[in-house]
Every structure is written in structure tokens, then in C-alpha cells.
Amino acid sequence: MAQLWGGRFQKQTDKAAYEFNASIRFDKRLYRQDIRGSIAHVTMLAKQGIIAVAEKDQIITALKGICEDIEKSVIVADEKYEDIHSLVEANLIERIGDVGKKLHTGRSRNDQVALDMRMYVRDEVDEVSGLLTKLLTTILRIMEENTDTYMPGFTHLQKAQPVTLAHHFGAYFEMFRRDNDRLKDIKMRMNQCPLGAGALAGTTYDLDREYTAKLLDFDGPGLNSMDCVSDRDYLIEFLGALSLIMMHLSRFSEEIIIWNSNEYRFIEIDDGFSTGSSIMPQKKNPDIAELVRGKTGRVYGALMALLTTMKGIPLAYNKDMQEDKELSFDAMDNTKACLLLFEGMLSTMTFNKDNMRKSAMGGFTNATDVADYLVRKGVPFRDAHSISGRLVITCIEKGICLDELSLDEYKKESECFEDDIYEAISLETCVNKRQTLGAPSPDSMKKVMERYREYLKA
Q1: How far is Cα of residue 216 from the mean position of the Cα atoms in its chain?
Q2: Per-residue model confidence (pLDDT) at position 6
């Protein structure tokens, strides 16, 4: 088909060059944004007297019909169209003739595609935020049900101090809450309308850019026409936010994979979110968690690709910028799929509380509490730390835990030890006495979870 820009050219584009240049195979998903932007544009043109009201009504009716026909697959976005913009405009002209040719008055494909992509990303921000909110709600429910589910906390993948499952999950609530807040911040910064910027230098038509911005739910128009058509910061920010979400999901997935292992057996993944082996009948694999961990690299790749694409582009628009879409769409799709499936896996997971508790009682997770006990008896902390360390060595040699040492063995290291040492280093005491805000005690967690509930309500 003839190109909408073909007036300057005396022969057809080489077929391979045309296919290389075309973007219809991936930008066809922008059709709703493209049509909505066109409706706002012609509404403004009629308001400004640039086209007649009757022409505006005719164009809008036809555009709505095209949208319906795309959704019903009556119109197919195939290779005969260069991009989604030419598909819409070509079908419009086919339906209403010369009136359809007025759609592009005062507009360039540059500000058109900038508008479409910005609106699409804005919608994606809302979708990802909704999925994050659902995940946060599930995490909070699990926290509320497990304030007294004891488990070991780790540093260097070694048992460190006892915590609760609620406290451990609270760390991920914080991560995903930051992710959600980051999305709100990105949306606020990106919500400037590029429509009316033209190719790069605006237009001689008397456009009302404030009006089109309002029609399209933007905070206002972008204030520099060159920046409007060449800005991809908002998309890079969004890919950065998606990368952080995926990093947090990947960390969580890694822990689930470890907890699901035979050596830990902290959790049981629901049959609906795990798979088996084609040869080993006993296997139940954490495939969803592993795939989430694996797909993180794809999202990182999209961010790095766009950063690399943009780093050497002079003002204003360059065709390189067409590369902002394909990998970005893949990153968005994968992040949403990962959030959806991860939440499903988490919400149906069961926790082996006895195994968690037994694990917390091993590995000398209460060694710090032995030192703290001595400090409360007046022993300087550095001396108390050394005494506790020697007691751990004794336990290792005997193959026992700190709460299995006799009082005589304690007193060999310090006369400050009394019978109350056993209560002081019990699992419950180790957790419940940590009452500073953000610590794992039930009282502290109750205050934190109340804040989380308020956050989700807001």
C-alpha cells in the first residue's frame, strides 16, 4: 500500500528495507491509545475551528468503529501496514474518504507515537501497581497468621538469630511497598502530554495543548517540543522499577527454593504451582519460583538495551527510538506474569511450622542472647561476647545446643550465670524481648502491621 509519507519519493521502498523499518508486529498493541489520542486531537481541532464540527463527529464515529473492528479481528494488523498509526489512518480514509485525511492536521508521527507510548506505559504502571497491591495484601495476611511462627534468621546463609515468619515476610512487604511507591512517583513525573509537539518544533496551527492534555488525563502539556518527542526517561524509569520488582521477586524465589528443599522442608508448595519429573516420581519442583528467578535477567536486559540505545542519540527524534518498544513490552508482560503467578504460589503455600521451630533452635541462634544476659549482669559486652563464643565451642565439641549445657558448664565460664539463663535464651524470650520498632516481637509486629494495613487502605 502507498505510504502516508510517500509524496517525496519516486519509487517504492525496498521490500527488505520496508520490513526492517516497520513496527506493526509489535506496536499494534498501542491501538487503543492511538485511537484515543486521535479522538482527543480532532476534538481539539474542531474546538479551535481548524476542522468543522461535523467533520470531527464523522472522524470520531469512524475511529470508534475501527477500534471495535480491531478488537473483533475484522481489521488485522498485518505487514501491509507500516505501523499502528498508518493502520488506523488508512482505514479511516478508506471509510470516510477525504475527511479522514484531515485527522493528521497539526500532528506528526513523532508526537503521535510519543503520546501512544506514554499513555500505554501509564496504563501499565497502574496494572503493575494493582498486582503489587494484591501481593502486599497476601504477604500481610501471612504475617498476621504467623506472628508466633518461629524460624531462624540468616546472615551469609548461616543461622544467625531467631525471628518469626511474620518478621521475615515483613522484609518483603517493605521491598514491595517501596516498589509500589516508586511506581506512583514515576507516574507523577511522566504525566506530561507530548501531543502538539509536532515533529520537533511545534506547529503553525492554533492548537490548544492544555485542552488535549486535559482530555487525555495528563497534568499538562510538555513544555519543550524537542524533549516531548525524544524523551524516553519515563520508560527507562519504569524499566528500572520493573527491574527492582523482579530483583525482589527473585530474592524471594531463591528463599522459597531453599525452603522447599529436603534439607529445610520449611514449606509445601501447592500442587497447582509446582511440577514433577518425567523420570523421578518423587519429585515436586518449585518451577514457578525458578522461572521468576530466571526471567529477572530478561527484564534487566530490556533496561540495559534501552539505556544503551538512548546514550548516543542527538536531539530530537531518531529512528533508533523505535527500539524502545519490543523489549519493553516483553519486560512488562513478564513482570506482570511473574507477579500474578508468584502471588498465587504464595497464597496457596503451607508452612511446616514445627520444622521452622526446630531449625531455629539449632545453629546457636541464641548465642547473642547469652552475651546479652551477661551484659545485664554487669559484664562488659566484649567480655560477654568472648564467653558466649567459648560456650559455643563447648557445645560443638559435645554435639549439643546452648540450652542443653548444664549450669555447672555455664559457671565454668562465668559465675554470673544462674538458673534463669535457660529462660533468658529460650526461643520465645529471644524473640519476645526484641521490642524495638521493626524487631520481631509480637508487640512490635502488631504496631508495624497496623501501619501496613493503613498503607493498603490508602
Answers
A1: 25
A2: 58
Is the separation of the CB atoms in 40 and 216 below 8 Å?
yes
The arithmetic mean of pLDDT across residues 306-334, rounded, is 96
CB contact burial 90-110 (16+ within 10 A = b; e otherwise):
bbbbebbeebbebbbebbbbb
Query: What are the E-state strand segments in 188-279?
Result: 192-193, 220-221, 267-268
Instruction: Evaluate the CA torsion angle 327, 328, 329, 333 in order and state its sign.
Output: positive
Q: What is the rounded CA–CA span in Å between residue 431 and residue 161?
A: 9
Mean of pLDDT values over 362-366 = 91
Domains and CATH numbers, the chain: 13-105 (1.10.275.10), 110-148+165-358 (1.20.200.10), 361-457 (1.10.40.30)
DSSP conformational letter for 403: G
Q: How far apart are the first and last CA of the chain?
A: 52
Which residue in 217, 169, 224, 219 sits closest to 202, CA to CA?
224
The CA-based dihedral angle spanning residues 370, 371, 376, 377, taken in that order and rounded to the nearest 10 degrees:
80
Q: Considering the chain, what percentage of its residues have pLDDT values greater than 90?
A: 90
Could you give the CA distance from residue 415 to residue 394 in angstroms, rounded to a whole number?
17
How far is it, in rounded angstroms, from Cα 311 to Cα 224?
20
Torsion of CA 317, 240, 189, 46, to 10 degrees: 50
Segment 365-380 shows an average pLDDT of 95
Name the H helices within 192-232: 209-215, 225-230
pLDDT at residue 187 tops 80? yes
Q: How far is 282 from 176, CA to CA, in rounded Å? A: 34
CA atoms within 13 A of residue 241's CA, in its CB half-sphere: 27
- The whole-number average pLDDT for the span 96-112 is 97
All three cell numbers of 300: 534487566
How much is the pTM?
A: 0.92
In the numeric block, the cell 518483603 is attached to 172
pLDDT number for residue 22: 73
Distance of CA 185 to the CA centre of its chain: 13
168: annotated active-site residue: no
Output 19 or 115, whichever has higher pLDDT: 115
Active-site residue, from 156, 167, 243, 328: 156
pLDDT of residue 279: 85
The single residue of 277, 386, 388, 406 carrying the catalytic annotation is 277
Burial degree of 12 (CB within 10 A; 0-12, 13-18, 19+): exposed
